[in-house]
Amino acid sequence: MGRRLALAILLGLGQAPGADAAPSLDGTVYFESDTAWRVYSPRRAQKSQNRIAPELTLQLNDDWGVHAHGWLLYDPIARLNGPDPDFGEFPVDRWNVGGSRHVEAELRELYADWRGRVGGARLDVRLGKQQVVWGQSFGLRVLDVVNPQDFREFILDDFVTARTPTWGARLDGFAGGLTFQALAFPDWEPDDLADPESEFAFSQNLRGLFPGLAAAPGRAPTVILGEDEKPVDASGQAWSFGGRVGGVFRGVDWGLFYWDRTDPLGAFERRVVPVDGGISNVLRRRHRRLRSGGFSFSAAVANFTLWGEGTVSGGRQFVVDDLGDSDGIVQRPDLQYALGLDWNGWSPLFANLQFIQYVIFDHDSRIQLDAFRHFLSVLLRFDLLGETLFPQLFVLYGVEDNESMLRPSIEWRATDRLSLVLGADLFTGPSTGLLGQFSARRSCVPAATGGCLFDPFPGRPSRVFLRFRYEFGFGL
Amino acid sequence: MRTPASAGLLLAALAAGAIAADDAPPDGRAVMTLVDARPRGPDERLAARWRLIPKSGRERVRETRTYWRDRRGDDEGLHSQRLIIFDAPAPVKDTAFLVHSRAGAGGEDRRWVYLPALRKVRRIASGDRDKLFAGSDFSYEDLSERAVGEDEHRLLRREELDGVVHWVVESTPKGESGYERRVVYVHPERHTPSRIDFYARGDRLEKTLRIRWQQVDGIWAWRELEMDGVRRKHRTRIEVQSVEHDLGLTDDVFAESALRHGVP
Prior knowledge:
The complex is a heterodimer. By secondary structure, chain A is mainly beta. Chain A has 2 helices and 22 strands.
């Protein structure tokens, strides 16, 4: 419903008043070919995504503009999607063209912008399908909670691609030295988990993914995957809303945030059902309301910029090992925050150190995840030959599981239009860890109907990749 | 709020008149005070084409808009604010840089950059003075402004440049700077710098900036700037396409939010 309303408003803008400047149309188009090869056996191509992505901005006058962005993607390999194009549900405005798992079209953004003043305040209003970016952490999203995430490639280097844009309204303002933002999104989307048989499927060994499973005496536990539970539009549970306010105080940028939504990630609840004289576990993703307050700050001193961001949430769901628990899920408040230190002391180098901590309040021993989890990261990015060559290394390390993700790359901007990136995404650690799950082969989860619930092969999606991009702009 | 600044400009203008009337050789500080106090208007919008010219290889072109506002004398200790937005080509479109210069206020400049590829605003350390901006030959320090009191000034000589005898002033930073000294060629009537030689540590000539001026709305404004990165063997030419003054630019134009949303 919200999507239809937003679309109607967008279409109504064709009659936008106050045409004090001639309309103009600007556009950019990029072609991208992104191919990755596995570094572990079987050493085969993992993806070959060929994407054309037009982006258009129609400026109707000084106040009104309309922006549209989409892409068409062809991947002859498509191992990121798994063999079944119908697995799960695509977000709205993403389609398998011709029912093929190899061809995908997506409307990424479609929104109208209005800029103006009300009283003494500057206002920017954006209506339509959009991304809202909060925070600046690397590798893991901490404050970047507004849009759901696409996990088909786990943690993409590019959050802009990994975010799932959603339909809604956004108002930004500036008054009295403060910036403020209000958001209301009537449409809800879940985080897009990878297909169980695709390259970046979450490992069933991943701690915190599945609750403890029941089994008949002397039998291994079996699993049936159920349909996701989703918020019902009419109940208002599909709505997300919140906002931020920020400013500068004594040279320190600060921001306060609030976001109230149905948790797009959710957690797998467990129900035990009788099957053929035994029992099995029905697992289905459950999404509950999640309210988060957030903060950010950033201050520059000499060659350093110290920044931080975090959220405190009430009612996040965590799976437990307790078979006596009716659904295998408990809800607890939690804190997630990141502290970062940027260093610019040597002109060609940008360096960042980052510390991320996850804290579960009121933790008890049944919860699979530790009460405290820590990640550290290092980012080194060089700018050589006058913005032509960009060697980069990003390392994300999970302390408790002794796991890591290493991401070396080198980008060559041959011209303003043409760039090439050669890099790798490498994972180490145990299969129970967030990062380590991708360094081990997945094991078989027995299905209630026999065999494995899904193919345990292949796992270990560490890869090298080569990305080619050609981009140009035009105007009318 | 602007009264102190206006008074300062008036005093400086009177001083300029005194020097011109005497025609006595001024000292370096007086010359740079004239440069600082020349009429610039309360604010400015400037459209320009940046040409990044390597010694060999392909020239790159950037289309930019720059918004500038004089903040001397305001309560927050600011000297000026400058916002630069890249409009073309596509890969750098919407990249934006904001600096709040606090020259002479005892505080460090505040800088932010908006990276459209990430859709993020990042605060930039102010100590990163000599880092080059957007592949050009201008450093972040070059895009900020310096108050007269931040340097020791010495009148070196008079020298003819483009047919006009200029005052040549050496400005040596008292505190932190990416340069050991600057040598500034000042037009004696317009009080505009026509050329600046930048010397890095070890007194090596790092860059030379040549500025051509035009009169717009009775104000001397840039027409063309060319920074020659002598050591880097690279040049950046900024060709000004339009200049407007006294637009009534307000705080929101120079707020961090303007980086994300542009300027109305």
